[in-house]
Defective in cullin neddylation protein (Brassica campestris), 423 residues
Amino acid sequence: MYLPPEDPSSPVPNASSMTPKPRMMIQRCENGCKMRKLNDDVEEDNDSSKMESNIRLVEAENKLPVVSEPEAAAALVPHATKPETTEEEAQKVCAREQLYKLCGVRHWKAPLYTFFNQDGPDNTKLFKVEVSVEIKEASGITVLECFGDPHNKKKIAAEQAAEVALWFLKNHLYETDVNERAFEMFKAQRSNKVMRRSAAASSKKKSDSITSSTTDLFRSASSKATTKEMDRIDHLFNQYANTSSNLIDPEGIEELCSNLEVPHTDIRILMLAWKMKSEKQGYFTQEEWRRGLKALRADTLNKLKKALPELEKEVRRQSNFADFYAYAFRYCLTEEKQKSIDIETICQLLEIVMGSTFRPQVDYFVEYLKIQNDYKVINMDQWMGFYRFCNEISFPEMTEYNPELAWPLVLDNFVEWIREKQA
């Protein structure tokens, strides 16, 4: 890029007639560049009129080329802290063209070059060039004035001044623009992430909606199946229930046992009552019936009959049998506030509940209860004590039995009776 030829007729602007603007001046020196700010009101020295006579103001064309942002950014190649340019390098770099493009991209005025003639013979005359750039900022316009080293060629002197201006814009001003551009890129990336998250959330919501619909259908089908099952359980209940009391009474239980082909004194009927959590001996409420048969998954008589063997296995597990044994005692408390059971009933209950598991102990204990005269009834503590005796004491040796370990008194007498009998 070449500077326009000098035009002696070009008017020289009068500094006093121009509106003062904030100005910064950067001057190239041997050790690098030095910068100083100039006040808005600049005092002209005595030689200003003489200097103005030697100033030729050269302004580039008013129309700026349309340059893309990446091209201008590429033009701002980082310069060293000490910008130095030889004549050959200046012709290759062409800092004036880069500065011109940058001003076009930033929508600034074209850079202005001012030439100062230095003293000396015509054949060795040196030229000093100043380039002025009006920087538009949010706070206003700042004028950047940069000087290059004196040179015997105007073109190279102007190139050096432009290089100083580029160095300043790159290291002080353009860095801020880069940060702003990076922030804009960050906002764009973040916006894209938000859009992707929104799309993912929408997709997940749609998937959840489908899953929810499927779950609702499954629940609906399951609910319908449960309703039908409960209807069949109620139908079976009504076959044995007394219509006036809406309870399965002793007569209904006998009929049920007959249809199940099980004696009414069979332990499995007591186990069925335990599964139902029946509260009153000889009676099943509809709620108890539903609870038990639903747990057994038996909604017909045939299914209930097949469920009894599995129920017996469940009860005889060690984790369940102690609870069943205690329930059997409570189930026989037929009167309100009753806390004990007569000896005759206890003997029958022991035969049903414990006879198949601890036959020798039950036979001896029943025999003792029938011949002794100290006890007419047995309470819960004595009942559970016998269960503990069967599980902890070897029989008939009973070597582990220690009467000082707070056994019920009826068991102390029972052990003493056996030992006398064995002697």
Summary: Residues 1-18, 36-92, 175-179 have pLDDT under 50 and may be disordered. The longest strand covers residues 127-137.
